[in-house]
C-alpha cells in the first residue's frame, strides 16, 4: 500500500512538472532544459499530422445532342468548363466560386469540394456553354436542376448520389446546301425538208 502511494504521488509530481514546463515555455521563462522538453512535446504533436479534410466529388458529363440522349446518338464534348460554387442561399444566388475543371475526351468531369472550403448550405454546379453552343438541358440524380446550365445540391451531402450530373448542349447551326435544279434545254425541232414535185407537160 505504501509503495502504491509513493508511485501515485510521484506520477502526480511528474505531471505537474511537465505542465509547468509547457507553461513556462509559452511565457518565455523556461531555461534551455525546459525548452528542450517543450520542443519534444511539440514534435510529438506534429507527428500526429494535419487534420484530414472530408471531401466530396461531384461528377457528370457534357454531351452535344438532345436532352437525355446518350452516346452513340449524342457526342461527348471535350474542354467544356464546369464550376462549383458554395452558397448559403438557394438559386438564383450562385454564392462564392470554389473551383472549376474541364471535361475530358469522354465528356466527363469531376469537381471535388472539401469541408474546409467553407461552411456552405448549398453547392451549385454550373456549366459554361462553349462558344457557339446553347444549352438544351440537364439531369441529376441527387440534386435539383435549376436551369439548363445549373444543378443545385443542399447539404448534408452524406448519403446523396453525387454522380450523374449531366448537361446537353446544341452546336452551331449548320447551313444546309440548297439544291438548284438544272434547267433542261428545250430541243428545237429540225425543220423537215419537203420535196417539190415538178409536173412536166408533154408536147404533142
Account of the protein in words:
- By secondary structure, this protein is of the alpha+beta class.
- The chain has 2 domains: 2-47, no CATH class; 55-170, Immunoglobulin-like.
- 21% of the residues lie in helices and 29% in strands.
- The chain has 2 helices and 10 strands.
- The strands form 2 sheets. Strands 1, 2, 5, 7 and 10 form a 5-stranded mixed beta sheet that branches. Strands 4-3-6-9-8 form a 5-stranded antiparallel beta sheet, with no helix packed on it.
Order of helices and strands: HHEEEEEEEEEE
Q: What does the largest sheet look like?
A: 5 strands, mixed
Q: Report the count of strand segments.
A: 10
> Radius of gyration over alpha carbons?
42 Å
CATH superfamily of the largest domain: Immunoglobulins
Helical run tally:
2
N-to-C span: 186 Å
Beta-strand percent range: 25-35%
CATH third-tier fold name of the largest domain: Immunoglobulin-like
Q: What is the 3D form?
A: rod-shaped
Average pLDDT rating: 78
- CATH architecture grouping of the largest domain: Sandwich
Give the class from helix and strand content and strand pairing: alpha+beta
User: Which segments are poorly predicted (pLDDT under 50) over 5 or more consecutive residues?
Assistant: 1-12, 36-46
**CATH uppermost class of the largest domain:** Mainly Beta
Q: What is the percent of helical residues? A: 10-25%
